[in-house]
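Q: I'm building a small set of examples for a reading group on sequence design. Run inverse folding on the following structure and report the sequence directly after it, with nothing in between.
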């Protein structure tokens, strides 16, 4: 017997034999490339996301050699597995039992999303010979008849990444305009968040403001599966152009930059805590609360309850972690150029922290405490340049980091065609939409 969950060696061998030798695809692959109306196609680049290549979906025919019919149905609101299989003319008690009990095949019950397609191969007698359904993302559930037994497979499909261009003109609100331009909600939300520091979308928006965007879209043939990140955008607000480009050169995860290569992200957060108050500022002379003498206070104290997460104020690497005299439990981070930061009086360190650990801005590195010379729970935060302490709330703190040295030419080359395409899109949308 072939085990339904494909755990036996014999079962796996028979499935591989069926896939390799019969090569009877149940479903063809249709490729299409779609772009927005009025989009200029010069300089538009696409990429392919390479993922594990799924084997063809095949089915062995029933022993009776009945004719096999291929059918497909879209899931309707309120559908059950029984109702949709009935429309697909599946009348097979064994298949029904298999779908209910097989751990992989049970995904069909959670995958009945309205609009999703289920495809089958069915014999003249209604016996299920093969079934295929997307279960979410880029995963495909397949049920295959091998000999007299049904087996289930879950495969990862190959998605094609395309860059979609859209443009629009504000008539009432940002989201009304993005809806009119058929921009996915997740992309519209990214757009509003990324420009939020420059534009107050509640107060600053004006009629006939314009936007043009480029974003990632992932397809399986002609079918849009999901959208990714915004890769470039331009927003004209009150006649002023605001532009951004996503770029990964020199940084593993990439980030957003202005058209001239300045990061949209602050180089250093002003506070290592999300919610706090300054209990003691930077000073060259203050009365020490423990020793009662006048001493320099080379950092800023942020009061917060014990256990409050402490965040790295910028990307960096752990340079020191452990107890350090009056600072108590300390983490020191080394950043780009000559910048370092220190976080003192921690009650505990975040898991995984040790010397050499890379951290990202906003990552939790420890928790507020009162270790060392402290009269209450707080974090003592120091900002240093070449070892010299500076006021973390002052002008010495860099506002934003530019594209890393050595990558500016690559950035300009990558950004130019995207920004040029956005300008063309915006001009086209404006010419047809202004009242």
């Amino acid at each position: 017997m072939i085990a339904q969950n494909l755990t036996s060696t014999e079962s796996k061998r028979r499935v591989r034999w069926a896939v390799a030798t019969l090569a009877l695809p149940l479903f063809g692959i249709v490729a299409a490339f779609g772009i927005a109306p009025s989009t200029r196609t010069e300089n538009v680049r696409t990429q392919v996301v390479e993922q594990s290549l799924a084997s063809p979906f095949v089915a062995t025919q029933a022993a009776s050699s009945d004719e096999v019919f291929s059918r497909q149905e879209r899931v309707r609101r309120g559908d059950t597995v029984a109702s949709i299989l009935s429309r697909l003319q599946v009348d097979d008690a064994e298949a029904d039992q298999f779908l209910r009990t097989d751990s992989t095949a049970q995904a069909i019950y959670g995958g009945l999303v309205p609009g999703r397609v289920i495809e089958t191969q069915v014999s003249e007698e209604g016996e299920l010979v093969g079934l295929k359904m997307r279960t979410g993302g880029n995963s495909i559930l397949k049920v295959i008849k091998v000999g007299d037994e049904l087996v289930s497979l879950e495969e990862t499909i190959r998605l094609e990444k395309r860059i979609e261009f859209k443009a629009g003109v504000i008539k009432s609100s940002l989201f009304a305009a993005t809806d009119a331009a058929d921009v996915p909600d997740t992309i519209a939300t990214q757009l509003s968040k990324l420009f939020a520091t420059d534009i107050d979308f509640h107060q600053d928006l004006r009629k006939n403001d314009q936007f043009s965007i480029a974003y990632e879209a992932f397809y399986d043939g002609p079918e849009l599966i999901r959208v990714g990140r915004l890769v470039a955008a331009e927003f004209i607000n009150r006649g002023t152009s605001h532009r951004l480009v996503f770029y990964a050169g020199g940084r593993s995860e990439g980030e957003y930059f202005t058209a001239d290569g300045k990061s949209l992200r602050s180089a250093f957060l002003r506070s290592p805590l999300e919610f706090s108050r300054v209990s003691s500022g930077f000073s060259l002379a203050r009365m020490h609360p423990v020793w009662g003498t006048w001493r320099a206070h080379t950092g800023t104290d942020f009061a917060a309850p014990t256990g409050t997460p402490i965040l790295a104020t910028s990307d960096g690497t752990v340079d020191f972690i452990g107890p350090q005299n009056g600072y108590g439990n300390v983490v020191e981070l080394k950043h780009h150029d000559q910048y370092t930061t220190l976080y003192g009086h921690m009650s505990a360190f975040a898991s995984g922290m040790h010397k050499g650990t890379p951290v990202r801005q906003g990552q939790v590195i420890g928790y507020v405490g009162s270790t060392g010379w402290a009269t209450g729970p707080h974090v003592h935060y120091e900002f240093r340049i070449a070892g010299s302490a500076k006021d973390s709330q002052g002008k010495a703190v860099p506002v934003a980091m530019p594209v890393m040295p050595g990558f500016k030419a690559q950035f300009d080359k990558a950004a130019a065609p995207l920004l040029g395409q956005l300008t063309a899109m915006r001009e086209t949308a404006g010419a047809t939409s202004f009242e």
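Residues 408-433 form the longest helix (26 residues).
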